[in-house]
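Interim report to the steering committee. The following record documents the input for ThuA domain-containing protein (223 residues).
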Amino acid sequence: MSAAVVLSGRGRYADPWHPFEETSGRIARLLRNELELAVDVVPTVPDAVVAVCAGPRRPDLLVVDAGGGVHSDPPDDAWRAAHAALTALLATGVPLLGVHGAANAFTDVPAYRTALGGHWVEDVSFHPERGPAHFTTASEHPILAGLTAVDVPDEERYSALERDADVVPLLTHVHDGVTHVSAWAREDARGRVVFDALGHHGPSYDAPARCDLLVREARWLTA
């Protein structure tokens, strides 16, 4: 059975705005029920990150459901070891799915920013007030086959995210007449990656369209 790990925001990579324990549980349930993956939800604490990233078996899918923002305090020895283990795992090309706050996670791990293909930029990126959100498909990527839009009744719309030129936009939304990319994918020699800005809180996963999108992304990443 294929195995997935969900790194769930705790401590250094938690924040006051996101209920990571709740959203990580919803993600894990979807992956188990819809894709029959064996899923471990692992908190972002140093020993746990090392155990996952440097363990005897590489995960078939690494999901980051964490945040934390930019840190002014340098990592201690335990976190330096965890960051090194995460960097080494990413170098293997492990399929990576970053969800929502993941755009602002592991800001002190350059390899993570490179792998994800974009990030939240302090004082530039933003989101309008949470509420009904309409997202339009932005490409003919296989993840989007047969899909034209994703509607979520209660969601945040991340805007003005920085992204690399080589990623393929998956979803966009419009705010104040400006189109913003809300999800993207990339496949190259480094492996496959998806960033999906949806999934702010538990009610996001009450929307069938949101759940369908995440399952599509994970299916493509593990194919």
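The mean pLDDT is 97. The committee is asked to note this result when reviewing the revised timeline.
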